[in-house]
């Protein structure tokens, strides 16, 4: 039985392969931030951690606008080996400092299983990017690492292939997996990728994993990102992954698609309006115990 033949709405897939995904959590907490389970988790941050970025200041702004997690790459999968590849360990330390300043949990990408001990020492969630969605050996190792995993859809992957990739992660023992639709390769250079919003309900009908949407890579153009953020909320997504940079024109990576903090704030107001109309809410970080106790 293939994923494609499992069309019954909201019923778990009953194939031997799908059985593995029935073990995964429909929702889970990351440092108090709920992913899945009806609330809408917005993950935001720069494509890459850069030396000159004031990440703590950016993280506090993102949190104030309604983000519940900070995402930034320390190891970047670039199309060219001469492009900026990320800061590596200093980037992870910068993310940890931003977490301390903002309380936002941090999400960062893994490219190489040899980096897992270092990444696990700092990160709260491991991201596997589009280019590695088909790398079963990496997926299995990441699934063994003990952290939740954010798995992005391969740039030309079918939904079957995407769900099988999630099974590889689950086969390593991971039960906390969030899927991320990030657009598909296509024929029209007007947008970088073709964002497949129908993947949101289609995936939710086939498996019980949370599904979020990345409108930044999904369009490649900052001017299109706010509309697609709201559209993803309307489509029933479990959240968003949005690239935000304090000065997008200077970004070392994916400059054309990054929102600045003001644009992110106003886009989040529209997202909240859509969620409100649907009777849903943004995931918020719980108040620190010290504050709620007083
Ligand atoms: C990213 O999230 O910055 C990234 C490289 O995305 P993708 O793997 O979807 O291309
Ligand atoms: Mn990027």
Protein architecture, described:
The protein is α/β, with parallel strands linked by helices. It has helices at 16-22, 55-65, 89-102, 116-122, 136-144, 159-171, 199-206, 215-219, 225-234, 261-277, 289-293, and strands spanning 27-30, 33-36, 41-45, 69-71, 106-109, 125-128, 149-152, 177-181, 211-213, 239-243. The strands form 2 sheets. Strands 9-8-7-6-5-4-3-10 form an 8-stranded parallel sheet. Strands 1-2 form a two-stranded antiparallel sheet. Residues 1-12 have low confidence and may be disordered. Phosphoenolpyruvate binds at residues 47, 73, 77, 129-131, 152, 182, 217. Phosphoenolpyruvate binds next to loops.
What are the SSEs and their pairings?
Layout: H1 16-22, E1 27-30, E2 33-36, E3 41-45, H2 55-65, E4 69-71, H3 89-102, E5 106-109, H4 116-122, E6 125-128, H5 136-144, E7 149-152, H6 159-171, E8 177-181, H7 199-206, E9 211-213, H8 215-219, H9 225-234, E10 239-243, H10 261-277, H11 289-293
Parallel strand pairs: 3-4, 3-10, 4-5, 5-6, 6-7, 7-8, 8-9
Antiparallel strand pairs: 1-2
Helix pairs in contact: 1-6, 2-3, 2-10, 5-6, 9-10
